[in-house]
Amino acid sequence: MHRLIQYSLYPATMAASVYSAYLMLYIHQLPLYSIMAPLTAAFVLVGVMERVMPYRAKWNTPQQDLMTDATYIGINLALREAANVGFKLGLIAALASLGFSNASLNIWPTEWHPLLQLVLALLALDFFEYWFHRSSHKFGFLWRFHAIHHSPKRLYFFNAARFHFVDWLALAAIDVIVIMALGADVTLVALAVVFIQTHGLFQHGNVDVKLGFLNYLLSGPELHRWHHSKLIEESDTNFGNNVIVWDLLFGTWFLPKDRHVGVLGLFNPDYPTSFWGQLKAAFAKRAIDKPSDFYENEANYLSQLANANRAELSDL
């Protein structure tokens, strides 16, 4: 039974969330906010399954992060959603005034079934988000903001929303420009939101699920855990936010079969753990989080990392 749940929980939940949203939006013509129903159900389910079937039991214990993540989900998420409307509408208006509108670049295949359109939308969005994400790991200015997302020392569904608002605004701009350029409608965007948010809960969720062949299609939890590894060679992989095909094509797909991910987080031992401290940290002088900033030499770094990994994996 455990093995059956491991392989079926993710695809079954994703299918139920997306298809229920499709029925509400396209068949019953319910308002866009109706998508909160499947999202709420997925939020509760993943939260419960973390306790019933955790990937790593110690990740269910708070590590001075619960209040910070609650703030991101509460205050920051609320502010972000308010900015979401104003920012995206303002960007749409600005682009439209320049003649960049759905009417002028209407190349989206609206005659396709909405679920097929969703697949195309995820591939298109993730292509641009992949390169932005990869750049955020390479360039110091972008990393300052993205480092917040890599600051947790454990993964659980509550920290899926841990992003600096600058990082989020850049992603929102990419999404708006791509969707407008292709000419997709707002209902499809809402359908995509259901997929992306439900997928994000699993991606960060401390649930012992396995995706099997889906690891070659989607950027699920088994892949994303390695992206949060403290070891740079492991975290500079699996940049796809939703699909993983671009990582496969560009050589950044990573999923070792013979071991588990070790410690997570940043090298900086003094990186703030509070919400406001992390927002301000992006404007600090130190831009790059690398071993040489905090260890005397590579041997010292590797020794301490090995010890930390042994402690992290001791209960597996």
Short synopsis of the structure:
This protein has 316 residues and is mostly helical. 58% of the residues lie in helices and 0% in strands.
Poorly predicted tracts of residues: none
Helix content: 55-70%
> Gyration radius, to the nearest Å?
20 Å
Q: What general form does the structure show? A: globular
Total count of domains: 1
Summarize the helix and strand pattern as letters.
HHHHHHHHHHHH
**Mean pLDDT, all residues:** 85
Total helices: the number is 12
> Could you tell me how far the N terminus lies from the C terminus, measured between alpha carbons in angstroms?
20 Å
Q: Decide which structural class fits the backbone.
A: mainly alpha
Number of strands: 0
Largest sheet: none
Strand content: under 5%
Walk me through what this model shows.
The radius of gyration is 20 Å and the shape is globular. The chain has one domain. It is 58% helix and 0% strand. With 316 residues, it is mainly alpha-helical.
Q: What's the arrangement of secondary structure elements?
A:
Blueprint: H1 2-27, H2 36-52, H3 66-97, H4 114-138, H5 140-146, H6 165-182, H7 186-204, H8 221-227, H9 232-235, H10 245-250, H11 275-281, H12 298-312
Features:
mainly alpha, 12 helices, globular, 58% helix
